[in-house]
Amino acid sequence: MSHTIAIFGASGDLTRRKLIPALYQLFRKQRLPDPTRIVGFSRTAMTDDEFRDLLRETTHTHSGALFDKATWDEFADHIFYQPGDLGESDSMGRLCRRLEQLEAGEPSTRVYYLATLPQLYETAVRHMGEWNMAGEASGARRLVVEKPFGRDLSSAQDLNTIIHQVFAENQVFRIDHYLGKETVQNLLVLRFANSIFEPLWNRHYVDHVQITVAESLDVGSRGRYYDQSGVLRDMFQNHLLQLMMITAMEAPVRFEADLVRDEKVKVLQALRPISTSEIGEATVRGQYEGYRDHEGVAADSQTETFAVVRCCLDNWRWKDVPFYLRSGKALSCRSTQIVIQFRDVPHRLFQTEQGSPLDANRLVVQIQPAEGIQLHFLTKVPDAGMQLRLTDLDFRFDREFPAGMPDAYQRLLLDVLHGDASLFARSDEVELSWAFIDPILAAWRSPAAPPLYLYPKGNWGPIESADWLAAQGRQWFDVCPVLH
Ligand code: BG6
Fold first, then answer.
1. What angle do CA 339, 444, 218 make, to 5 degrees?
2. Which of 14, 176, 234 has the most ligand 1 atoms within 8 A of CB, as the residue to mutate?
3. In ligand 1, which atom is closest to the CA atom of 368?
4. Which of 131, 193, 111, 125 is nearest to 165 (CA)?
5. 164, 239, 294, 418: which one is catalytic?
6. What does pLDDT average to in each consecutive run of 10 residues of the chain (484 residues)?
7. 136: CA distance to ligand 1 center in Å?
8. How many C-beta atoms lie closer than 10 Å to residue 113's C-beta?
9. Which has the closest alpha carbon to 429: 421, 440, 439, 417?
10. Where are the beta strands (DSSP E) in 329-407?
11. Contact between residue 131 and residue 110 where contact means Cβ atoms under 8 Å apart
């Protein structure tokens, strides 16, 4: 069976930066099903050859030393281009005929990848419906939808409704590229392929969990988009909640798409809504100094570039264990990590040399750019009486597996081609996420909103975020990763 990937928004940034480089790497490693054709679709007038030339340059830039001219030339023979306007049904019809012509009457698995502006998703899906492009008479048909999936619950529901008028849910693959990261998948392995962590992974032993996605970059040239979005829509509704689900979920019976997603959905169902009256104590908001100077950002913008949300899960495993979700732009360093902070010993016999006793007994799952896991615990300093010091067991992917880590899109694209939706969000997952986020956004726009604290670039957000956590007897694990 052959495979065809039609990319909508083919002249855009995502196609050049992520999709084609990932497909090229899969081809180079001989992982792409043979044959797999790639058909770009967008408004720019281009021939097949012009499109290939454009992608050769950008793929070279994004692949560095992994780019090989001879392999690219072989790969490029599988790339085609169809100019057209997504807004016009006739253009979609022409694309449809081109796909049929390329498939030459052979059955083929087709993947339609929406890498275009989100405002165009609905029109694209409607036109696909008009041309019966979801019909599976001559092979499987799959739809990939990039984030953002809606901008609130009601728009996400509308989009799901329109998609379901054309595609069945099992044909739909909603991407969250965090789930394609090897270190995120490794968290599933850490939890469910080892027996030693499970007995500790609950309210009896865990004091709290910190999930931090810190970015050192500011919003750069994305001011226009970002000012309408803010950190909650841009990072929390998708990436941070996904990390929380994987950290908190129960083991599925089998590693199958619906069973995995059923368990993730249960985490969202257990998530306690944050009401307007609690918003001041459950969240912290921040904006970096200078944000309002970006092009496209309102001079009096109240958009958050930093946030902390304290999440509580009302279930047996996690009752009374706060999950602190935190993300921001223009912070000290780029660092995504999940910190499982275990409880302190019930009765202390020894004096610790540094920090609070909660410094010890911490599992740090480093997602990026450091990729590994550290277990922090106290140890005796030799020949120094009963002096103790914090030390750690340290696992690093790059030491154990020097071949390097693939980009998240490689795994996700391959899963779509194979029809495995385990690492993609289901419609209920997306809607429940928005149902949690919407009231926070609304409360932040109400008189009950906590202040929007300004923070200087290059810090861990506003100082008030540290004070806020200190008032709860805890402290952030604010350590920039050491990269080798
Ligand atoms: C995207 C957000 O979804 O994720 C960006 O829109 C953010 O604002 C990016 O920078 C972070 O992704 P990663 O993989 O670099 O952590």
1. 60
2. 234
3. 16
4. 125
5. 239
6. 96 96 97 97 97 96 92 97 96 97 96 96 97 97 97 98 98 97 97 97 98 98 96 98 98 97 98 97 98 98 98 98 98 98 91 68 96 95 91 95 94 98 98 98 97 98 98 95 80
7. 34
8. 26
9. 421
10. 335-342, 362-368, 372-380, 388-396
11. no
Report all structural domains of the chain as residue ranges with CATH numbers, in order of start.
Answer: 2-146 (3.40.50.720), 179-407+424-470 (3.30.360.10)
Report the distance separating Cα 459 and Cα 463, nearest Å.
9
Q: 337 alpha carbon to ligand 1 midpoint, in Å?
A: 14
Q: What is the pLDDT of residue 357?
A: 63
pTM, two decimal places: 0.97
Ligand 1 and 215: CB distance under 6 A: yes
Contact 127, 11 (CB under 8 A): no
Q: Which atom of ligand 1 is nearest to the CA of 181?
A: 14
Measuring from atom 2 of ligand 1, which residue has the nearest CA?
234
Tell me which residue of 157, 145, 136 sits closest to 118, measured CA to CA. Answer: 145
DSSP character string of 239-264: IIHHHHHHHHPPPPSSS-HHHHHHHH
Expressed in angstroms and rounded, the spacing between residue 116 Cα and the centre of ligand 1 is 17
Show contacts of 84-91: CB within 8 Å, 24+ apart.
Answer: 84/41, 84/42, 84/43, 85/43, 86/8, 86/41, 86/43, 86/116, 86/120, 86/123, 86/124, 86/127, 87/120, 87/123, 88/127, 89/127, 89/130, 89/131, 91/127
Continuous H helices in 271-400? 279-282, 397-400
Contacts (Cβ under 8 Å, ≥6 apart) of 49 = none
CB-based burial label for 49 (10 Å; 0-12, 13-18, 19+): exposed
Q: How far apart are the first and last CA of the chain?
A: 44
pLDDT value at residue 415: 98
What does the pLDDT read at residue 348? 85
Active site residue 239: yes
**Cα(29)–Cα(17) distance, integer angstroms:** 19
